[in-house]
């Protein structure tokens, strides 16, 4: 048994069961008292093992009750909530947990026989006339029997229908003369009907259920000084929680936390039964036949009119005496109290109204709720059939003493050019006891040194008195922070937190605890905190939004993030991989798109702390999207969600949940839309900046919402980050909300370098293609999905790609844009099969996204302040806009971005053919030079040049020299270009960039025959294994005969010790990092000698487009003939899709976790290396 004596939190993430509510005849009280479902590995139907955290669809998939919705066209075989109704995806979730308290004067818990309450509940879905209502009837069988009937509504346009009825059940008949009625709301109008049919007559579809609960005994007394809370960090959408027979309603809202004090509900023996009935969103919407952005706003209005007409006709017909021939009266008011059988006319109109209501209810938008909006489908994802219903985030129990700590807010302020800093903290203390609590509030701030040694920089204690049964807001330090005292949390030259590419990350561990006199430690809290200051204003010269961290402007190169998985299978392991992937691409910002999630603390944790250089800034949007809120034909939800107070409650709770994360940089009201006026005004006020965080260049529009208070900044809801009302407002796109983001399709690579390509300073969304590797296609689609698009040539010479139905369902973006862009895959020759198509697609992916980022960077600070690519990954098996697929295998675009977004970078301007050097850092780049070499398909180097030493100022792009080879008389139609930025003093390479190019008017078809080249390679492998974790260094050398240009080279053909792909900037070499990796493995098994594999070849030339993959030792063809995916995923590569000129050598670091019992093998493939050489581990 787990006693609750120790202060702390325990996560409840195992042992959950689930069942469809319509298949469970027991009530929540019965499930958590006398008749719980039997636990075990094979629970009896209808119960099944549940995915918690997760969704209903995730649970059904886990139990193989539905096909994988992301495979092929399987999603079309899964019942949509619009067709089945909300009850179909209303599920029970059940678990048990051990927790007992040592009780003092604990009350005697009631027995089930003491008293019985019969419940009957009817849920009325929301419609234009009738807002969400519930009919709640209870019959008390205690000593003084009575019946209480309550009608509850969520508010809004409330027209509440209440029915007086006969009670046919025996116990109800005995109580018929002793009942009471109460109304907790004022409806716009009500009408009452009486019917002998099952005790109820109700026009909309009825979903009723009965439950029993025990209510006797005094359960309000104290259970000693310990308290236990049950915490739900996210439920979609509403729920009823039952614990040991006690019921709590968990209100609506996907992005709100629920905390229930269960101290006096815990069973004395420590065995606790928990059941949660989870209801889907109120407005799940209907999916139009043609799909759509955010669902069904184009069809709902017509059906709404049908509904209103049908419902308006009934009372008019009745009141005009239309019911007279069926036993009614001339007086329509008698409709409220009559006791005859239901007239035939009423039944007819009832059925008509039911049909209209049923259609109309399901054609309302998901945007009416405060929930994820992508779930009705978008142009990049199929509909999610359950709309993400479920207990989708962490469930935990927390044990505290009499006083607990709630939502501390940490803020750092800086003075004297960041030399002096103060840490501020405001928190809430709650005293749950009936006596005054004398407390010692302690705060400890420590930082980790090398070798797992922690340095405690501050340890302070503050005496506080908290009155009984009260809340107290307390601020540390307790006096004005402008006056230094010993109790202040003062830091001299603190280690600052920097985003990716700007410097070293430093985080401090802040631990707060409260000790209560006579009890001891009552509660504790800790969080990793980064000292940093983020400012954001509109740049005067470009009109784009500019971000500064610790006073340094940052050129933003990042991406749009939807969410990790469309079924909300959100694990720490997957989050860790996701964030590392983005950091490996050298991205410095992620935008959490408004149609997705308010991302979870685990997501932000890895953005804060991952690795030695991987820190990503995040902009977080709230749940408004133009496609769902305010656009469409006709306009959908012009006033946003129905419940504005609920939206603001969820927004404020989200801010409290996330505000202490160093990576969080910006709050935004919505995607391509602003929130409704009242919500927007409230958010501007709630998220106003503290005066110490107002930039000197803040615009007038910002200053209107700034507070002039001199109070402690930690007393603000946030106060440290800017709030922008929408993703195309105030420095994003054209700043006025017009559709000036995008485009989202294939482009000519040189277009990105042209001044005319994009007009505005910061583009929040620009996207393109994203076909994954062939293995992913085979793993996620049946054989009929392996056929490649049909290439239809038009009269004007352009090619239209026509995909198969499965690719079309998975949102394939063509690699051509008829009338604008010629087919970019066809440039390499017509694809023969799936493997050929996908390999050529990777060539295009690499070129497309490298050019996108290099083109934007070419205008750094002169025209642009940033760009975010739409989008970086897919939460399902989509075929567009991704740098790694849903199985977490990279596309070549991943490495194109990784190359282009280096902090120090050498690049070719594809429009001007000038070579440029990019320095995004705060330091001057001096005494460097550029080596330029051109290689033809025969392995010769007809053009070679090394520049003079150059100096590149900080945060500048410098044009160096024109690359004149294409203008030479004997220039080859297809050639390779290798650029190296290096230090002549030690030949250290700072940036390496490899291009394949063709002359104007030519194509890459000559590369087709280049595939037949047999290039000699030498592969060295060094392996280190610790359990299932593998770390390898694979060194590949091109053994081709060197050309005459070799004698002229200023830079070595090998870059020893550098396998990072980012190259040494003088701070820490990857060689030293590799040594740290080996030393950290301790007892890891390491190969004594390098393993060497030689690939013989008689040809000379570039080893082109080489890429590693890691596999198990099995066959790709299963026994039943189906495709068997042998890849081990995810895998982290320091570089991939790389090319080596004759004599060059590259070291690639590879890390992964292998399945237990497997024998991993590393496979090397390439454009002209097709023998699939493997290294067994």
Automatic annotation (TrEMBL):
Gene3D superfamilies: Galactose-binding domain-like, Glycosidases, Immunoglobulins. Residues 403-532 form the Glycoside hydrolase family 2 immunoglobulin-like beta-sandwich domain. PROSITE patterns: GLYCOSYL_HYDROL_F2_2. Residues 222-281 form the Beta-mannosidase-like galactose-binding domain. Belongs to the glycosyl hydrolase 2 family. Keywords: Glycosidase, Hydrolase. Residues 1031-1072 are annotated as: Disordered. Residues 1041-1053, 1061-1072 have a biased composition (Polar residues). One of its GO terms (molecular function) is hydrolase activity, hydrolyzing O-glycosyl compounds. This is Mannosylglycoprotein endo-beta-mannosidase. InterPro entries: Beta-gal/glucu_dom_sf, Beta-mannosidase-like_N2, EBDG/EBM, Galactose-bd-like_sf, GH, Glyco_hydro_2_AS, Ig-like_fold, Ig-like_GH2. Residues 915-998 form the Mannosidase Ig/CBM-like domain. Residues 1122-1168 form the Exo-beta-D-glucosaminidase Ig-fold domain. The keyword Hydrolase applies. GO terms for biological process: carbohydrate metabolic process. It comes from Dichanthelium oligosanthes. Pfam families: Glyco_hydro_2 (PF00703), Glyco_hydro_2_N2 (PF22666), Ig_GlcNase (PF18368), Mannosidase_ig (PF17786).
């Amino acid at each position: 048994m787990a006693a609750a004596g120790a202060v702390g939190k325990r996560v409840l993430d195992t042992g959950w069961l689930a069942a469809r509510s319509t298949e469970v005849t027991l009530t929540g009280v019965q499930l958590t008292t006398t008749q719980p479902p039997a636990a075990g590995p094979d629970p009896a139907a209808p119960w099944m093992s549940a995915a918690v955290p997760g969704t209903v669809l995730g649970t059904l998939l886990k139990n193989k009750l539905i096909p994988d919705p992301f495979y092929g066209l399987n999603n079309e075989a899964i019942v949509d909530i619009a067709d089945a109704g909300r009850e179909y995806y209303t599920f029970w979730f059940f678990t048990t947990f051990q927790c007992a308290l040592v009780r003092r004067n604990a009350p005697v818990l009631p027995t089930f026989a003491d008293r019985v309450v019969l419940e009957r509940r009817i849920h009325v879905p929301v419609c234009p006339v009738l807002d969400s209502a519930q009919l709640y009837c209870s019959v008390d069988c205690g000593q003084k029997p009575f019946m209480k009937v309550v009608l509850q509504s969520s508010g809004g346009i409330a027209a509440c229908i209440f029915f007086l009825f006969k009670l046919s059940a025996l116990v109800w008949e005995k109580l018929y003369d002793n009942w009471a009625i109460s109304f907790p709301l004022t409806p716009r109008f009500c009408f009452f009907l009486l019917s002998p049919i099952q005790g109820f007559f109700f026009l909309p579809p009825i979903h009723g259920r009965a439950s029993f609960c025990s209510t006797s005994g005094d359960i309000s007394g104290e259970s000693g000084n310990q308290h236990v809370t049950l915490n739900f960090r996210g439920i979609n959408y509403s729920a009823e929680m039952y614990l040991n027979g006690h019921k709590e309603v968990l209100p609506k809202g996907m992005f709100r936390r629920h905390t229930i004090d269960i101290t006096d509900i815990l069973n004395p023996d420590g065995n606790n039964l928990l059941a949660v009935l989870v209801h889907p969103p109120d407005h799940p919407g209907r999916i139009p036949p043609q799909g759509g952005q955010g669902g069904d706003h184009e069809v709902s209005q017509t059906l709404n009119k049908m509904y209103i007409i049908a419902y308006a006709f009934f009372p008019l017909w009745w009141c005009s005496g239309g019911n007279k021939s069926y036993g009614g009266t001339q007086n329509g008011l008698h409709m409220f109290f009559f006791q005859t059988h239901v007239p035939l006319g009423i039944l007819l109109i009832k059925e008509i109204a039911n049909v209209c209501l049923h259609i109309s209810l399901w054609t309302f938008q998901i945007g009416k709720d405060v929930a994820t909006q992508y779930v009705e489908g978008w142009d990049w994802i199929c509909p999610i059939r359950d709309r993400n219903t479920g207990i989708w985030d962490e469930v935990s129990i927390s044990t505290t003493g009499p006083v607990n700590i709630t939502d501390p807010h940490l803020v750092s302020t800086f003075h004297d050019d960041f030399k002096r800093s103060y840490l501020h903290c405001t928190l809430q203390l709650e005293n749950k006891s009936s006596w005054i609590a004398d407390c010692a509030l302690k705060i400890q701030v420590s930082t980790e040194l090398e070798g797992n040694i922690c340095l405690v920089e501050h340890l302070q204690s503050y005496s506080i008195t908290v009155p009984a049964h009260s809340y107290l807001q307390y601020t540390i330090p307790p006096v004005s922070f402008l006056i230094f005292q010993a109790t202040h949390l003062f830091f001299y030259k603190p280690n600052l937190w920097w985003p990716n590419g700007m410097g070293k990350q430093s985080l401090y561990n802040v631990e707060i605890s409260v000790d209560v006199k006579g009890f001891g430690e009552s509660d504790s809290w800790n969080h990793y905190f980064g000292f940093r200051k983020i400012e954001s204003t509109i740049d005067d010269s470009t009109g784009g939004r500019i971000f500064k961290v610790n006073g340094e402007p940052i050129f933003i190169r990042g991406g749009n993030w939807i969410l990790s998985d469309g079924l909300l299978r959100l694990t720490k392991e997957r989050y860790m991989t996701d964030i590392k992937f983005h950091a490996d691409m050298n991205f410095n910002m992620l935008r959490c798109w408004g149609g997705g999630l308010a991302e979870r603390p685990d997501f932000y944790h890895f953005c804060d702390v991952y690795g030695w250089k991987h820190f990503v800034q995040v902009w977080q949007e709230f749940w408004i999207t133009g496609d769902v809120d305010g656009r469409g034909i006709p306009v959908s939800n012009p006033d946003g969600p129905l419940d504005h107070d609920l939206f603001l409650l969820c927004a404020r709770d989200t801010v409290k949940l996330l505000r202490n994360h160093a990576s969080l940089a910006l709050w935004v009201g919505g995607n391509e839309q602003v929130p409704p006026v009242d919500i927007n005004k409230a958010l501007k006020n709630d998220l106003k900046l503290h005066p110490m965080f107002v930039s000197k260049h803040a615009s007038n529009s910002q200053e209107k919402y700034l507070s002039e208070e001199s109070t402690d900044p930690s007393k603000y809801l946030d106060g440290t980050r800017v709030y922008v009302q929408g993703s195309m407002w105030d420095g994003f796109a054209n700043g006025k909300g017009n559709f000036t983001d995008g485009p989202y399709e294939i482009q000519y690579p040189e277009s990105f370098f042209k001044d005319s390509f994009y007009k505005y300073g910061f583009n929040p969304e620009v996207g393109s293609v994203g076909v994954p590797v062939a293995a992913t296609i085979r793993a996620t689609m049946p054989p009929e999905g392996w056929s490649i698009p049909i290439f239809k040539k038009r009269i004007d010479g352009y090619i239209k790609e026509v995909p198969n139905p499965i690719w079309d369902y998975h949102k394939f973006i063509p690699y051509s844009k008829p009338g604008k862009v010629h087919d970019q895959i066809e440039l390499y020759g017509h694809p023969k099969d799936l493997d050929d198509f996908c390999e050529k697609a990777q060539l295009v992916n690499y070129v497309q996204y490298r050019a996108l980022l290099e083109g934007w960077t070419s205008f750094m600070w002169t025209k642009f302040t940033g760009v975010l690519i739409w989008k970086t990954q897919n939460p399902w098996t989509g075929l567009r806009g991704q740098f790694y697929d849903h199985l977490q295998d990279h596309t070549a675009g991943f490495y194109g971005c990784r190359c282009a977004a280096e902090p120090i970078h050498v690049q070719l301007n594809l429009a001007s053919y000038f070579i440029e050097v990019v320095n995004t850092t705060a330091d001057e780049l001096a005494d460097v030079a550029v080596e330029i070499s051109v290689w033809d398909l025969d392995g010769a180097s007809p053009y070679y040049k090394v520049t003079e030493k150059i100096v590149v100022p900080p945060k500048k792009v410098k044009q160096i020299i024109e690359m004149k080879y294409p203008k030479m008389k004997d220039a080859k139609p297809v050639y390779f270009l290798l650029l190296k930025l290096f230090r002549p003093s030690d030949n250290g390479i700072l940036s390496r960039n490899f291009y394949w190019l063709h002359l104007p008017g030519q194509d890459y078809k000559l590369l087709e025959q280049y595939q037949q080249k047999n290039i000699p390679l030498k592969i060295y492998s060094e392996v280190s294994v610790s359990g299932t974790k593998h770390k390898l260094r694979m060194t590949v050398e091109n053994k081709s005969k060197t050309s005459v240009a070799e004698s002229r080279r200023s830079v070595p053909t090998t870059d020893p010790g550098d396998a990072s792909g980012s190259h040494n900037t003088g701070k820490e070499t990857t060689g030293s990092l590799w040594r740290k990796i080996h030393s950290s493995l301790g007892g890891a098994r390491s190969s004594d000698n390098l393993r060497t594999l030689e690939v013989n070849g008689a040809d000379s030339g570039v080893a082109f487009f080489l890429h590693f993959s890691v596999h198990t030792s099995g066959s790709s063809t299963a026994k039943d003939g189906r495709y068997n995916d042998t890849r081990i995923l995810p895998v982290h590569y320091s570089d991939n899709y790389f090319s080596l000129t004759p004599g060059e050598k590259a070291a690639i670091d590879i890390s992964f976790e292998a399945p237990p019992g497997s024998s991993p093998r590393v496979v090397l493939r390439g454009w002209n290396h097709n023998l699939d050489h493997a290294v067994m581990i």
